[in-house]
């Protein structure tokens, strides 16, 4: 008889964020920029995409990315598209700068990108919540300082409820350290969703 070895790992306090985003938070390769080190591997703090400075020195424009006049409008549009299950459109409206040789349409149609977008949709589209066009997405309390701004999920509301409150529906355990933030980028006068950070 062969007994398989048992591997013991230390686990933090039980934190079940179900139904929450899965560990494979690829980020916005799902939406037009490179994932963490070009990989979908999860890390303790999942960064959806690198800052423009950490992207490849040679970049190409991700077309047909389309920005918005304000960061609020850009994020409201992006979240609305996710909620309406327009995943490819949301992806293509994301960050306009890609590492050289990467094609936005190919990235946006990848299984990883679609999986991330669907996970966001599931985290927000909870029973009893009106989705667009019936429910309105609104970003409030955020001021643009510079060309890169981080927006917490508590600043984004759907049908009058913050995305954070929707994400935590059904969650059990210690959720105090959980956060989801959006990274906004101003590029050539227009705002884009550059990525998102998920922390447990």
Radius of gyration from CA coordinates:
17 Å
The order of strands across the largest sheet is 2-11-10-6
Q: What portion of residues belong to β-strands? A: 15-25%
**N- and C-termini, Cα separation:** 40 Å
List low-confidence stretches.
Answer: 1-64
Helix/strand order: EEEHHEHHEEEEHEEE
Helix content: 10-25%
The overall pLDDT, averaged over residues, is: 72
How is the main sheet built? Answer: 4 strands, antiparallel
Give the tally of β-strands.
11
Q: Which structural class best describes the helix and strand composition? A: alpha+beta
Folded structure, characterized:
It is a single chain. By secondary structure, the chain is α+β, with helices and mostly antiparallel strands. Helix content is about 20%, strand content about 20%. It is built from five helices and eleven strands. The protein has helices spanning about 70-85, 85-90, 105-110, 110-125, 165; strands at about 15, 45, 60, 95-100, 135-140, 150, 155-160, 160, 170-175, 180-185, 190-200. A four-stranded antiparallel beta sheet has the order 2-11-10-6. A three-stranded antiparallel beta sheet has the order 5-7-8. Strand 10 and strand 11 (about 190-200) form a beta hairpin. The chain starts with 14 loop residues before the first strand and ends with a strand.
